[in-house]
Specification:
Elements lengths: L1 E5 L8 H7 L3 H4 L7 E7 L2 E12 L2 E9 L8 H14 L4 E7 L5 H6 L3 E6 L2 H5 L5 E2 L2 E2 L3 E7 L1
């Protein structure tokens, strides 16, 4: 049985997991203290985390969504997106997420019901101190996806 719970207290205790989705700690520091953070828990063990922020104008953004490698492909990420969608529905009109143009993440967000919104050119080049490589792809632009709530 898996449940999703609010993360209270020290969010940095999940840093190892957060770094799986955003591999530079200084970038995580930009958003870790704001918004709401949730953990997927199974058998008393955290197997995923999700942090969502209020970006203003009725928009919430998933800033970080990470699933332990042993739990990937088992519906945990989808369950967390569905939870966040429901959590945000009464307070926001739109949910967004930004990711690299990677074959590992783009299809996932599309399967969850997100549609491409816009691109922030050179985001990974301008904001990270080292090349970010995901699924063999060197990330350059941030691809934003959006869904109406």
């Amino acid at each position: 049985m898996m449940e999703i719970v609010a993360v209270e207290g020290d969010r940095k205790r999940y840093l190892d997991l957060l770094l799986m989705a955003d591999e530079q700690e200084s970038m995580i520091d930009r958003y870790i203290a704001r918004g709401d953070m949730f953990a997927a828990v199974a058998g008393g063990r955290v197997c995923g985390v999700c942090l969502v922020t209020d970006e203003g104008g009725g928009t919430a953004e998933i800033k970080n969504l990470a699933v332990e490698p042993a739990w990937r492909g088992r519906g945990v990420g989808r369950m967390m997106v569905d939870f966040v969608r429901g959590y945000c529905r009464d307070r926001f009109s739109r949910l967004t997420v930004g990711t690299g143009d990677s074959p590992a993440t783009v299809p996932f967000y599309e399967r969850c019901g997100f549609v491409r919104s816009h691109v922030v050119k050179d985001f990974f080049i301008d904001n990270y101190d080292h090349p970010i490589v995901e699924a063999g792809v060197v990330l350059r632009d941030m691809i934003y996806f959006s869904m109406e709530l």
